[in-house]
Amino acid sequence: MVSAAVGGAIVPFSFVPTATAQERRLPGSPSARWDFDERAGAVARETVSGTADPVSYVFNDARYKPDSDPIRRRGVRGRALYFDGYSTVVTAQGPGALDPTRGITLDVWIAPYAYEHGIDGKPQALVNQHDPDAKTGFLLGLRRFGQIVFQLGFGTDLIEVRGAPDRPAGKGRWTHVAATYDPAARQLRLYRDGRLIGTATTPDKAPELASGEPLLIGRHNRSTLLNGEFHANMYMGLMDSVVIRPGALDDPTARQEHAERIAALPGRHVPRPDLVQQRTRFDGDRHRPQFHMLPPWHWMNEPHAPVYFKGKYHIFYQHDPLGPYWGQIHWGHAVSTDMLHWRDLPIALAPAADSVGPDGCWSGSAYVDGDRGPVLFFTGGDDRLPHRQRTGIAVSAYPADGDTDLPTWTMKSDPVTEAPAGLPAGPGTAWAENFRDPFVWEEDGVWYQLVGSGIVDYDGARVTKKHGGTALVYTARRPEGPWTYRGPLHWNDLATVPEPGEVWELPVLLPLPGSRGARTGKHILLVSPWWEAFNPNAVKHTHYWIGTFDKRECRFVPDEEKPREFDFGEHFTGPSGFVTPDGRSVLFSIAQDRRSEQQHAQSGWAHNAGMPVSVSLRQDGTLGVEPIAEAAGLRGKRLARIQQTSVEEANRRLAEASGDLLDISAVIEPRGAQRITLAVRACADGTEETLLSYDTTERRFWIDRSRSSLDPDVRKGVHDGTVELDAGRLRLRVLLDRSMLEAYVNGTNSLTSRVYPTREGATGLRLTAEGGAPRVLELDVWRMNGAYDTPVAPAAYDPPRPTDVDALPNHDFATGDLTGWTVVSGTTFSDANVTTRTDWGWGGPFYQGETEDDVSGHHLWGFNPEAGGDDATGVLRSATVVLGGDGVVDLLVSGGNDPDRLYAAVVRAGDGKVLAKATGRGAEQYRRVVFDLSAHIGDRIYVEVVDRATGGWGHINVDDVNVPVRQR
C-alpha cells in the first residue's frame, strides 16, 4: 500500500500493476441518465430508455391546498429538480444495461441546502439501488456535514469510500460529484469537481447489483421512518444530471471531463444555485397563517433571541430545514423594521463538526455588544459529552461587512458555560443533564446569563430526588467570559408548587414598565415547564411570577410564591423577550399548532410564532398584556364600525363582515347579561363555529372549539380562565389568522388557540348575549394584510361526506365498549381495550378522533397489560353491512408495523376476500388511512381487526372507522 495527500488527508491507494486501456475500460455511453429538464409535471424522464419515472412530492395530491408540481429551478445546464428533504423522490426501475464487471461510474451535480444529522448512521442518498442487508447494489450520498460517500456491494461486503472531511459538497454552491468502481485496480474512487478526494480497496470479486430494489433518487433504499410518518436519510437541495455509465474513471479523465463541462457552460462558469425557499409553495393553504411570523418551509419551534440593531428587529427561531418535524436543529433568521413585516434571511446557525453544537443549535438569546453588534448565545448539543448540553456564542460579520441585515454568523469553537457534576444549587445540585436555553443581558457593565435547569439529588450518576426547576445565574464582564456561577435565580418546590415542572426551559427575566412606560422596579420571570417523563401539561403552558430582581445577590424575589399561567389557551409556549428601544418589554412565543405528525407531513409546515405582546405592570399590581401597538399597522379595509347599539343590532350588521384574516376590537357593557359570546369562523348553518364567551357571574372567559371543525382528527375542547371586567366593561381584541386565534381580554389576559375549519363558508361572525340588556359601545372589524406579501385566498376544502348513508354501528367506540363488534378469537380485544386515554404513558398523544358524537375520544387501544400486552393475539370483527355512498372507507390506525399479522382490513363477506388493509408504522400516534372501494359499492362487507403478532409492538390501535353504509 502507498498513500497520497488529498485535501489535507492521507488517502491510501492500492498498488497494482499498470492496467492496459482495454482492461481499465474508461466510462462509456450512459446506461441511464436523468437531466431533470422538465418544466412541469410529476415525472422525470430517463433519457436513455425514454421512460417517464414518477417524482413523488407531497403536493402532487395535496391535502390542505391545491395540487402543485415538484419544484424546479435553473440548473447547471437547463433545469434542476429541488428535493425538499422529506417528500421529493424519483423512483426508477434500475440503471439500465449495466454490467458491473466492466466498472461503474456515477455522476451528479448537487447544490445542497442543508445536511441531515445522519439518522441511524445512514447517508443522505443522492442516488441508490442497494440492499444493505444483502450487501448488494450501490449508493452515492452524503454523510454528516456534507461528506461525500460511495457504497458498493459485493454480496459478502458493502464497501464504502468516504471523501476527505474537508472536501464536502458545500451548501449553497454547485458541486460535481463522481464515484467510480475500477475492477482492474480493485478500487472505489470519489471525485469532487474533477479532483480525487478518497479511495477504498474492494474485494477480488465482482460486485452484485440489487436488481430487485427500485432505483431511488433523493431517498435511501432503507430509510429510517421517523414518528411513523417521515422518511429520513433524504437529500435536500437542487440536483441536476444524474448519469450512470459503465466503465471506470481515472484521475486524468476525471479532470478532463470536469474541465470540458465547465468550458461548455455559458461564460465558462458554474451558475449560482437558486436555493431560496419560496413561500408560494403553500399558496392556497386554508390553515397557514398570513400575518404571523413563520419560516418559509418546514418546521419551527420557539422564536428566540429578539434583538434591535441599527433600525432593524431581528428574530431567530428553532428550525428543521429538512422537513416539518422535530430534529436537526438550526437557527432560522428573519428581519423586520416593525416586528410585523418580515424578510427571510439565510440560516444563521447550523450544526457543524468543529462547533459547540455538532448535534444541534438549540434555543438561546441575543444582546448587543456595542459596535460589534449583537452576540448570539445558544445551547450547543453534543452527544459525545456526558451531559450533552452547554452554551456557546456566535458573532456576526457586521464589523467586517457593515450589513445591518446580519446575514452571516460564526460560532465560536469554545463553550461559554457548562454544568459540571455536583454544581451546588439551593437544596441540591444542578441537573447537569438539563442545562440549556441561555437568556442574556448586560446592565451597568455586567453581563448576566440565565440557564434553564433543574435541582436534584444524585446517588452517583442516578437522580434520587427532584426538587424542582430553576434558572442558574452566571455573570461576566464580556460575552466571551470568563463567566462566574452565582447560584439559582429562583426555584419551585415540586411538593408545593408543581406547575413550573422539574426543569425550567426558556427562562426570561424582563423589567416591567408601568402602563405609561415609567420604571416600576418590578420584573417578570417567565418559564416553560419541562418534565422528564410524559406529562399532559408539557409544552402547553407558560408560567410567570412578578417580583424583584436583586442584582447584588443575583436572586429573584417573587411577590407571590405560586406562579400564574400567562395564557389560557395552551398554545402560547416557548417565550422569549427583550426591551425595545422605547422601553417596552416585548415577548415572542411559539404558537404550537397541535396537529398530528401526519397532518404536518401533509401540510409541509409546522407551527408559527404568536403575535408579539407587550407586558406591563398595572396600577393594581397585576400584569398587563396587549398585542404590540404596531399590530394595528397590519389592518387593511375596515369591514364594520358599530357604536352605541344593542347586541341584536350589532349582530345584524356583522352579517356584512366576514373573513379568516381579521382584527376585531369590541367594548361591551354587560348591563345584567350573564353571558356574552362572539362566534368566529362560523358557517351560516352553525355546523362549524368557534365560540369566545364571557360569563359575568363566574368572571370566566373561555374558548369553545367543540364545533370548530368537522375534521375528526382536529384537536378541540374548551379552555378558560378567570378575568375581571374592566370598570364594568368587557374589552375584547381578537386577531384571527386562518388557523391562528389570539384573544386579549381587558388588557390583562390572553388566550391563544388554533382552529381548523373544513368548509369554505366558515368565515362568519356572530355576537349573542344571554339575559340583561347589554350595550355594544364599540365594535370594529378590519381585514388584515400579510406579513410577507399579499395573502392568497384558501383554495382547497374537504368534499362533503355522503348524506344518504348510515354509519357502521359503534364506528368510533363511543359507547365505551365493543358494542356492535364481535370478538372472533383470542384475548387481545375486550371492553377493557376501549379507552379515553389521550397518551400511552411512555411517549406522547394518541391524537384519537374527536367528533361531536364522541367528545370524550374513545378509541380501541390494542395493548392491554392485564390481558397479555403485546403477546396477546386475537381477531375483532364489526357488523356486516352493505357498502354504499361513494364507497370510500377511512379509519385511524396506529401500533406495530406488520402488514401480514397486524392490520385492520375491509373484508368482503361473501368470500372473505380482503379488499383493503392497513397496519401501523411502529408508532402509537394515529394516522388516517383511506380506501377507495367504489368498485365494491353494493357488496356486503365488514371490518376486521387482526392481531397475530407477539413481542415488541405486537398490537394495533383503531378508531373512527367511517364506512358509508347503504340505508335499508
Q: Can you give a write-up of this model?
A:
Keywords: Disulfide bond, Glycosidase, Hydrolase, Signal. This is beta-fructofuranosidase. With 968 residues, this protein is mainly beta. It folds into four domains: 32-264, Sandwich (Jelly Rolls); 300-627, Glycosyl hydrolase domain, family 43 (Tachylectin-2, Chain A, 5 Propeller); 632-784, Exo-inulinase, domain 1 (Jelly Rolls, Sandwich); 806-965, Jelly Rolls (Sandwich). Helix content is 4%, strand content 45%. A hairpin with a 5-residue loop joins strand 23 (330-336) and strand 24 (342-349). The radius of gyration is 30 Å and the shape is globular. The model is unreliable at 1-22 (pLDDT under 50).
Query: Averaging pLDDT over every residue, what do you get?
Result: 94
Distance between the termini: 82 Å
Query: Any idea of the CATH topology of the largest domain?
Result: Tachylectin-2, Chain A
Rg over CA atoms, rounded to whole Å, is: 30 Å
Number of separate helices = 5
* Coarse morphology: globular
CATH architecture of the largest domain, by name, is 5 Propeller
Give the oligomer, counting copies of the same chain as homo and different chains as hetero. single chain
Q: Indicate the percent of residues in helices.
A: under 10%
Residues in β-strands, percent: 35-45%
- Under CATH, the homologous superfamily of the largest domain reads Glycosyl hydrolase domain, family 43
Structural class: mainly beta
EC number: 3.2.1.26
Keywords: Disulfide bond, Glycosidase, Hydrolase, Signal
Domain LamG-like jellyroll fold: 102-255
InterPro entries: ConA-like_dom_sf (IPR013320), GH32_Enzymes (IPR051214), Glyco_hydro_32 (IPR001362), Glyco_hydro_32_C (IPR013189), Glyco_hydro_32_N (IPR013148), Glyco_hydro_beta-prop_sf (IPR023296), LamG-like (IPR006558)
